[in-house]
Design goal:
The chain is an all-alpha fold and 120 residues long. It has two domains: 3-64, Orthogonal Bundle (434 Repressor (Amino-terminal Domain)), CATH 1.10.260; 71-109. 65% of the residues lie in helices and 0% in strands. It is built from seven helices and no strands. It has helices spanning 3-16, 21-28, 32-39, 47-57, 61-64, 73-84, 89-109. The longest helix is centred in the C-terminal third of the chain and has 21 residues, at 89-109.
Length: 120
């Protein structure tokens, strides 16, 4: 997994929980500077540090690693659904139309996209 993507997901989840960097670092038992480097994508956490982070965020590791794991399709679908929950009926229909068009185009081009690996 890319360090920057990992770091941004950790930061996003920390902020969603309204935790400051300082409070989160303390709660997780991680150095403040090190946590900042992880969130900025400058450092890749060790497995032990990663586990501390996800545990203190109340998340499963697969949520953070969802683009890297094949079995996380339900997580991706849930994330998309969550983003759409406050849309108006008109906007929901527009999103549905866009998604259907994209899926149809993917199906049509899948036969010519040699070498492409599905990342979700």
């Amino acid at each position: 997994m890319d360090k920057e993507i990992l770091g941004s997901r950790i930061r996003e989840q920390r902020k969603e929980r309204k935790m400051t960097l300082e409070k989160f670092a303390e709660a997780a038992g991680i150095g403040l500077v090190y946590l900042g480097e992880i969130e900025r994508g400058e450092k890749m956490p060790s497995m032990g540090t990663f586990i501390k982070i996800v545990n203190n965020l109340g998340l499963s590791a697969d949520f953070i690693l969802r683009d890297e794991l094949v079995a996380t399709k339900p997580l991706v679908l849930n994330e998309v659904t969550k983003k759409m929950k406050d849309l108006s009926p008109l906007h929901l229909k527009m999103v549905k139309d866009v998604v259907i068009t994209m899926v149809d185009n993917f199906a049509a081009t899948q036969k010519v996209d040699i070498g492409y690996e599905d990342e979700v």
